[in-house]
Design goal:
Layout lengths: L4 E2 L13 H10 L4 E7 L11 H17 L6 E8 L12 E5 L2 E3 L5 E3 L4 H9 L5 H18 L4 E2 L20 H14 L4 E5 L1 H5 L9 H10 L2 E5 L12 H11 L2 E2 L2 H5 L1
Parallel strand pairs: 1-2, 2-3, 3-4, 4-7, 7-8, 8-9, 9-10
Antiparallel strand pairs: 5-6
The structure holds zinc ion (2 copies).
């Protein structure tokens, strides 16, 4: 089996705890076969992510690391492109992870889906207190992103569940929830690589990755390529559940790819 690698990696240029150099050193020490960086794009709606100066410095530092690790471990410069960020110029990044982090309420207010339990409760209130209207708006945003943008990898498909551990806000088995999620995955399963993301298992107490296992049936049926990503924000979690989740996905019969298959 191929050496491990990770394509969903954050650094101090956005909300990570370690520099790109520290993340690369950690990856090399773990015996990774490759490492992809995916700093957050700047999202005008919430001011989150790398601004123009940070983005330039990020690209320069990753380019320097590419040279430093040449012949030892391929390094790729990607971007986690928020759905509310304008598309970057073609070829500016080695790859793009397309991610929805916000929903727009009927009032026009933009609410993050991955901030906290309290913010999630407030966001659902902005949908008249109907959690299924809230989750439907999230999956509609994912649908629109994938219908209109050419990204390489779809990030954390069901991020809207981040603070729903234990069914706190909605029932993830309810038809109202599943009928909003499943058709979006069905519609785009033949067009993109989907990420299996262990980030919330590491940081938010979730017991399953994004997307949830019931959605894996759709990925399997379509023969959709999947990539395991840790969405790591610190050197110590770069390989969190990476090997175990890859094994699980292989056993399940999913079609695995990694960053080297995407970037060559
Ligand atoms: Zn994200
Ligand atoms: Zn991320």
């Amino acid at each position: 089996m191929k050496k491990l690698s990770n394509a969903h990696t954050h650094t101090t240029y956005c909300d990570g705890a370690n520099t790109p150099a520290e993340m690369a050193a950690a990856a090399y020490a773990l015996g990774f076969g490759a490492l992809g960086f995916s700093g957050h794009s700047f999202c005008p709606a919430d001011g989150f992510g790398m601004d123009a100066a940070a983005l330039l410095a990020y690209q320069r530092e990753v380019a320097a690391l590419k040279r430093e690790y040449a012949g030892k471990m391929p390094i790729f410069c990607g971007l986690e492109l928020d759905s509310m960020t304008p598309m970057p110029a073609p070829g500016e990044f080695d790859y793009l992870i397309g991610s929805v982090h916000n929903v727009t309420a009927p009032s026009g207010e933009v609410w993050p889906v991955d901030m906290s339990i309290e913010v999630t409760a407030e966001a659902i209130k902005a949908f008249g207190g109907d959690p299924y209207a809230y989750t439907a708006a999230y999956f509609a945003a994912v649908d629109e992103m994938l219908a209109t943008r050419r990204v390489d990898i779809v990030g954390h498909f069901d991020l809207v569940c981040k603070f729903n551990v234990g069914g706190r806000f909605f029932d993830e088995a309810a038809p109202a929830y599943r009928k909003a999620a499943a058709p979006v995955l069905e519609r785009h399963a033949d067009k993109f690589i989907f990420e299996i993301n262990t980030g919330a298992m590491c940081r938010s107490g979730m017991k399953r990755p994004y997307p949830d296992y019931w959605l894996w049936d759709i990925l399997k049926a379509h023969g959709t390529p999947v990539i395991i990503g840790t969405d790591s924000h610190a050197a110590g979690t770069l390989d969190f559940q990476l090997a175990a989740m890859r094994e699980k996905a292989v056993q399940f019969g999913l079609r695995m790819v990694d960053i080297r298959d995407i970037c060559g």
